[in-house]
Amino acid sequence: MKALDIKLWRELWGMRMQALAIAMVIVGGVSIFIMSLSTLDSLYETRETYYRDHHFAQVFASLKRAPLPLVQRIETIPGVDKVETRVVAYVNLGVTGFADPVSAHLVSLPDRSRGLLNQIYLRKGRLVEPGRDHEVILSEEFAQVHKLEAGDTLRATINGRRKTLTVVGHALSPEYIYQIAPGAMFPDYQRYGVMWMARKPLASAYDMDGAFNDVTLTLSKDSNEQDVIDRLDELLKPYGGIGAYVRKDQLSNRFLTEELRQQETIATVFPIIFLGVAAFLLNVVASRLISLEREQIAGLKAFGYSNFAVGLHYLKLVLMIVGLGILGGIAAGIWMGKGMSNIYMEMYSLPFMIYVLKPKVIVAAAVFSMLVAILGTLYAVRQAAKLPPAQAMRPEPPALYHATLVERLGLQRWFSQPTRMILRHIERRPLKSLLTTLGIAMACGVMMIGGFQEGAIDHMVEVQYSMSQREDLIAIYTEPTSLRSLYSLLSLQGVEHVEGFREVSAKLQFEHRFYRTSLQGLQPDGELKRLLDTDLKVVDLPQQGVILTDHLTELLHIKPGDMLTIEVLEGNRPTVQVPLIGTTKEFIGLNAYMQREALNRLLKEGNAISGALLTVDERYQREVYGDLKDMPRIAGVVEHKSAIQAFYDTLAETVLYFTFVTTLLGGSIAFGVVYNNMRIALSERNRELASLRVLGFERREVAYILLGELGILIMVAIPLGLFIGYGLCAYLAFQFNNDLYRIPLVLGMNVYAFAALVVIISSLISALMIWRNLAHLDMVAVLKTKE
Amino acid sequence: MSQDKQATHEPRDEAAVFHVHGVTKVYQMGEVQVHALRGVDLDLYRGEFTVLLGASGSGKSTLLNILGGLDTPTDGHVFYGGRDLTRATEGELTEYRRDHVGFVFQFYNLIPSLTAQENVAVVTEIAKAPMQPAEALQLVGLGERLDHFPAQLSGGEQQRVAIARAIAKNPDVLLCDEPTGALDSKTGIVVLEALQRVNQELDTTTAVITHNAGIAQMADRVIYLADGSISDVRMNLTKLAPRELSW
Ligand SMILES: Nc1ncnc2c1ncn2[C@@H]1O[C@H](COP(=O)(O)OP(=O)(O)OP(=O)(O)O)[C@@H](O)[C@H]1O
Ligand SMILES: [Mg+2]
Asked: What distance, in Å, lies between the first and last C-alpha atoms of chain A?
């Protein structure tokens, strides 16, 4: 090996702790980058494969009832490839040993088939046998939480008739990767499931013999999506079609897409922070090393080593540290990526996960970190290379100190001599002090992200389900029903309060922008469903006009006073112009609200309601569930509180994992920055401190001079970091916003306290390590040798 | 003295390896200017052994550094062979140092993380026709200390490693800044013999700075520097061998 390379290895070994601390920060950046991007690629690849192999449809439409021959006309729409019609129903279930309301989507399957489109993935058991009209296949998660195996039975209320169903298998479907009940926000496998059943019995139960109420299509390559949608809507209109939509708008697919988008944000934000800090650390360490070795550098140049050779020598050192970080980062990234992909596989109903690690992701991570590192050290290395050898051979002139700001202000008498030394030292290198502060602040900020998620979700749930939707149960009718039906609900023992609501699907349009959602008619003085403004004050429903979710007005670019066009997609499909009166703050979904009676008038109907909100005395909850299940008019009962609880249970794990990861990473940044700075300060001021010891200062006092500087920087860095953390969270919250949900920026005191605490603890650990070094401060050796 | 000074003003002498003409060096130290060299004229010849004497701060190191291509003069010219070093590019200077010059620094400049042998290897690895590092260390009496790190060597031993490093490349020019400053007479003589051997066997042009006037007796020529100028030049008619020097 070349003598210079030997020097490299020995020096690397000599500074191994520092190198390791820097490598850790790079590991953080590279691993998150690889984890997020490989998870992203894996999810894309898995989704693509799943969708392709299982013929996931591209266009979806629901309707009331259409005769089968209509299929021929759908098939002739230009651009349509395959068409499959189905019968789909929403039913109430009874599961033995589980008293809460359970609902399910019941989807028809052709005989001896997994379906033409949206083919199911049979995980267990077998397909339903033709002619056996009580057999069902259950969605896997639902079957698992209820421990329902082949041969087990459950009770269903199908179109008002009770029926006992027998489980024959477990399956997954590309259509229900994200499985949530209509109107729900979170998956709740205990209370909502999907079931597949033979078409014939399902059709006859719903009077759909020779008919269908759901159609899905795939398109040929050169088709025009919008054109197909328009023509399909035209065809289905007379049969109660509520508007076709494309795959992009399909609920399960949309949730998955949002998740992928979040991964993408994480894949950019985090690595930038980590690599930025790493670049700074490398710069600091390389600068120090080079200034320590300026005489050696001069020697090398005197012997005829070129600037390039000298520069390369130090660059190699830096690249070796970076290389170590990259290797560690790749390993950790793959490990975390696989773990993450598996979490996704379980969180979403995916039958398999193809872990994809594209070489270009690894290359990008490596090249990017190398570049950042080179950029970070280039200045120091250039400085080393360009010094004329004769000059470099002379020791560096003693550092020039100035009176500090404190002294210029005449405040020095308030500070002891050691404190003044600290202040001068900070002021002498303002840029370095600033970057150090920033580095620590970044660590602090990164750690707030873990806690932010939790707080945001708490707030969302609190606002949505305690302040806005205050009912215990929602009962959904099979058909719009007279307002009078509320009396029969109120008469049930344990029901305390009842409010009816009317709900229709509608297309809202302003200028050329439109959005499909549900238009809800609420009781104006309602106690249970209340609209809130940004300050969480109750918004009164106007007699005329509509109120929209604030985010929806932004999407439509509409402001109060403008006329909104509402096209109702049910019944006799009226289209009306209604003034926008105000907005309401909602974190989940996008909705339009008006007074129930106004909606009844718009629909030219009497006092009809689509369902009811109920509050129930806790002691009678079980009985009320039972009574509701027995009412043929009621299609389903939704209970949010237990769904939220179930969601929290699953979330708790993810949040814990995420908090753990961010804490580890934030801690490693804090440690990397603080430890390296302390080590360098120690090496720079070795002589000075040893002299102080010779002069009779105690280790404690010397430590104060050395560590006090960082102490001050940390004290500045923490508030700055909390501010940066707030900004990061705000950025993420903004990036994560979509029409399904908006993440509020809510940061509790505990989040701030935790971040600050981790910074303080990692600083204390590095201080402790330096304290031990201080014990070995060799007074004799230091004073004997020349600087 | 005046004779020799005249000689430097004559048209360029073909036998001169170095031709130094009107070299000044001014260091800007904030407000003040330090005149390290004030118009030095000097020729050094092939195979000549020159000793530079002068008070501390008289500009000896500065002159040697300029000869070695480590520094550039503020004014004047330095010719090595036919090449004007003051006009050479950075790359040309590097090549000049690598291929022609052996340097011994006043402050040794050893690399602490490398052993004696490896310190020498740093130079031999890029030289054209070097000795083996062990051989060079043998010449300065350190054959037994090949694998010691600088920190494990005394000041004098470190200085000898620095000398081994300079002679190991068999240079055309050997420039030594106080090579015996930290040595006792016995080891000093070993080192001077090694320098003389390289000087004689390879016809190496050698310039040695020293505070030890005794060493001047082994030189072909002694140049006295005072306050940045050459104050005197003496030819040595009878050269002494290193072991005959009065230390
Ligand atoms: N890089 C520099 N910056 C400023 N002044 C310098 C520099 N190098 C040398 N000098 C000054 O130039 C003058 C000559 O320095 P030089 O090192 O050549 O002296 P010297 O004769 O080698 O002295 P010594 O015997 O002490 O080594 C001195 O006054 C010195 O302070
Ligand atoms: Mg000198």
From this structure: 30
